[in-house]
Write a structure and sequence with these properties.
- By secondary structure, the protein is mainly alpha-helical.
- It has a single domain, classed as ACP-like (Non-ribosomal Peptide Synthetase Peptidyl Carrier Protein, Chain A, Orthogonal Bundle).
- Helices cover 48% and strands 0% of the residues.
């Protein structure tokens, strides 16, 4: 991504904070291993979460990279992998 800079270090904690804000779920209830489907999130909420993650970390993710079968932990591993492989 040209002109993009990573503004935060990728961590489960920072992803959780973004998730709590964008998904409207209190941080204590957003456990890293919980699947997004179990939280009752729809595709629009996950799309908004994806956009926020891309802005925060400067890592491009396809819409299908984040779906209801994922968790914060899954997203963390995906971001780290994509960050290292560009």
């Amino acid at each position: 991504m040209s002109g993009s800079e990573v503004t935060q270090e990728i961590s489960i904690e920072s992803i959780s904070r973004i998730g709590a804000t964008k998904l409207g779920i209190p941080l204590p209830e957003l456990l890293p291993e919980m699947k997004f489907d179990a939280l009752g999130l729809d595709s629009l909420a996950l799309l908004e979460f994806n956009i926020a993650l891309q802005r925060a970390y400067g890592v491009e993710l396809a819409d299908e990279d984040i779906d209801g079968g994922n968790s914060i932990t899954d997203v963390y591993h995906l971001l780290v992998k994509k960050n290292h492989h560009g």
